[in-house]
UniProtKB/TrEMBL annotation, chains A, B:
Domain Phosphate acetyl/butaryl transferase residue range list: 81-298
Protein name as it appears in the record: Phosphate butyryltransferase
The keyword Phosphoprotein appears for this protein: no
Classification lineage: Bacteria, Pseudomonadati, Bacteroidota, Bacteroidia, Bacteroidales
Organism this protein belongs to: Phocaeicola salanitronis (strain DSM 18170 / JCM 13657 / CCUG 60908 / BL78)
MF GO annotations: phosphate butyryltransferase activity
Keywords of the record: Acyltransferase, Transferase
Origin superkingdom: Bacteria
PANTHER family per record: PHOSPHATE ACETYLTRANSFERASE
Pfam families per record: PTA_PTB
């Protein structure tokens, strides 16, 4: 398939595939969630299983009235019950994607992470991937982790790279370039993540991540700007041309996300990975566009599950 | 004085003050350093004490030929000797600012940090401040630390805030708004820097930093975007209107710097703080503009020393 270079290309690709993903939504009861549902129904990329709690049914029923063929409603006593039921719909294969509505993120994640009945397979690593469409970059840029893992261990880095590379392939990129981010190019035991990076590069050479180019440590600018690399005399094929950035901690990943979206005028999409199906947990301060693109990204990832990796 | 809102206003302010700062340059022997020297001489904001090593004198002598009244030359056998001599020129009051030319940063810092003969006073904290002029922000934004302190301690946070607030005042801002950056608004012992933040806010209320507003934890977007704050129901005067961002680690500070300069189309300036005089250590991948603005920032800071804080 052709490489997808923008988020609207991603939506077009979904439309032309004529597949509607089945999305289970927990507590669809706020204007942001309504916007995403209405827009994705109009774009014909999704159908919905709306799981409502007893006190907040109105929006769901009005959405079903407007699109009776593509909206089903499930009722549960409380938001926590709604979360459990939506997770169950994904587990039993009735839904392809889980999406958060108006429920506390911690409560939703409790259902997602619940042993035996949740969405994380044994030994699975829950992480977050963001996809940025940046006016000053020549392609989509994926990165992890802006939201979930505070200080990745080696195993968590491996899981993040595996998921992000798999997502690159879904977006038509057969040989993703992965940059391991630090402040400088130096490996230094004072910064233990740079020691993990050495191991990850070795993993890559041994084929652990498939066809992929992994390099680092390097800073975020060097990863995305050829000129910076030239000044430093770096010749790696990752330098200046990264598809994926792996950050050493949640504060740097989160700062990248927030800076791009505010000052880089970027369109963002994001989802949780490591689960048996994509989980969409939009951040409150994301734009409407960003929330819609997050759902579209999850639809694209579709059946990209931990098992298939 | 009037609030300085752009880096070119900063240069104009220096020009109109008619004060030339005396800048000691270690090993001026590369085109970037030459550019900064020539431009600042033309703008009449600096005069130079060029400290050359035995093998690289040509550029210095050619600069002196062009501006004999404002360029003096000092010779030293090696680059390390040149660094020691330039530091001595600052210590003895013959120079106001130290600037790096073509010498390894570690070697220059060794001279700066040397006990008894260096530029860091007893108990001083070496840190870095950057000043960003961002097209999508309504004023200059200062932040620390993108370059020096890996994981600030409480004392180091205090020193960073003290220096950055003092620099804000030099730029005409009498009541700087300081945002303490994290991924969320939650104080959480799993993230020890958020516990330091509680103490720093208390420090601020007790007047430790003078007239200042300190708030956090909050993410970088919330600090600089009123809309994000409103969505989260935050009402602090710092939210959406920060003058200073304090980052929890060097990876997040560095990521902010690199992302702004590459994807935010920002003009950047930066210098070391905590020393008895500003030290300018441009990064190789900085633009020529950024290197010049860094020198201009140091000229503005001028005699802003640890002692005066």
């Amino acid at each position: 398939m052709e490489l997808i270079r923008t988020l609207s290309q991603l939506v077009n690709c979904l439309r032309s595939s004529c597949i509607r993903r089945r999305v289970a939504v927990v507590c669809p009861n706020d204007p942001h969630t309504e916007y995403v549902i209405i827009r994705s129904l109009r774009e014909e990329i999704a159908e919905y299983l709306l799981v409502v709690d007893a006190d907040h049914k109105e929006m769901a029923y009005s959405l079903r009235s407007a699109s009776p063929d593509f909206v089903r409603i499930y009722e549960a006593p409380t938001p926590d019950d709604a979360a459990a039921l939506a997770v169950e719909l994904v587990r039993t294969g009735e839904a392809d994607i889980l999406m958060k509505g108006l429920i506390n993120t911690d409560n939703l994640l409790r259902a997602v992470l619940k042993k035996d009945t949740g969405l994380l397979p044994p030994g699975g690593v829950l992480s977050h991937v963001a996809v940025a469409q940046i006016p000053l970059y020549h392609k989509l840029l994926l990165f992890s982790d802006a939201a979930v893992i505070p200080r990745p261990t080696l195993e968590q880095y491996r899981a993040m790279i595996t998921c992000d590379v798999a997502l690159c392939r879904v977006l038509g990129n057969e040989q993703p370039r992965v940059a391991l981010i630090h402040c400088t190019e130096k490996v230094n035991e004072k910064f233990p993540h740079t020691l993990s990076y050495v191991q990850l590069k070795d993993d890559a050479l041994r084929g652990r991540f498939g066809q992929v180019l992994v390099d680092g440590p390097m800073d975020a600018k060097t990863a995305c700007d050829k000129h910076s690399g030239e000044i430093k005399g770096l010749t790696s094929p990752v330098v200046g041309n990264a598809d994926v950035l792996i950050f050493p901690n949640i504060e740097s990943g989160n700062t990248f996300y927030k800076t791009l979206s505010l000052f880089g005028d970027a369109n963002m999409a994001g989802m949780l990975t490591g689960t048996i199906a994509p989980v969409v947990v939009p951040s409150r301060s994301d734009s409407g566009n960003s929330k819609f693109y997050s759902l579209a990204l999850a639809c694209m990832a579709g059946k990209l599950t931990q098992e298939s990796l």
